[in-house]
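Sample pair:
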Amino acid sequence: MMHKYGVQVGIYTQYFFKVIRDTPGVLIYTICLPLVFLVLNVSSALFRPLSLTVYVNQVMPYIGWMIFSNCLMTAGTVATLREQGYLKQYRTLVVSPAVFIVSQALVNLGIILMTLLLVAVLSSVTFKLAFFPLLGRLWLTLLLVYLPVTCYSLPLIALALRRKTVDTVMNALSLIVILGTFMVSNLLAVPASNPLLNLISPIYLVNNVFAMISVAPVSHFIMTYLLSLVVLVAIGLLSYRHLKILPTEGL
């Protein structure tokens, strides 16, 4: 069963990659657009040497937004496939609907890995940071947060939402998380180990994980990270158990 599951994940991952490769303009746009927003938001710091501590405070929140948006797309795409009838059409051909989620997550993971590679290049040029150590920290951060942040987004697959509504909910959720995180960070002195804020803000979680492996002792945050991982994975599993397979009609 596990072998068949792995084979099917590989097949659908190749298929989803092929779909996006067949539209190179969309692929380039998806990979590079976050860099444009990053440059616009940190333009005042460009071409000035930054320490890792300043990088955490000034640049990582925008990288956290990139990762969160990428993870949100996984759930949004699966919900869109449902509304297009693909989950209903192919559910008898796969050992588990999780094949669709894992395959889409692997595709999006590949995209965000390429984006972070470009972020590391940009940061090494404009902020005078060592390229390979920074790239290693960014990719390690991504690997540590990708599962919990994706699970944070998975309630979208458990809601009976039409395609346009899915897009609206994704945009609203992204906006609320971004504005809420920046407002709290600017107005309140919340410690990095605060479990509630790490659970409700994926951007804050990403920021703190990068800080944990870059500038702060691991012991200051590891328990909060593990708690966030367990709770968010539980949310993801619960959402998967209530996965909607049939398209929403009449809403």
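The chain has a mean pLDDT of 88.
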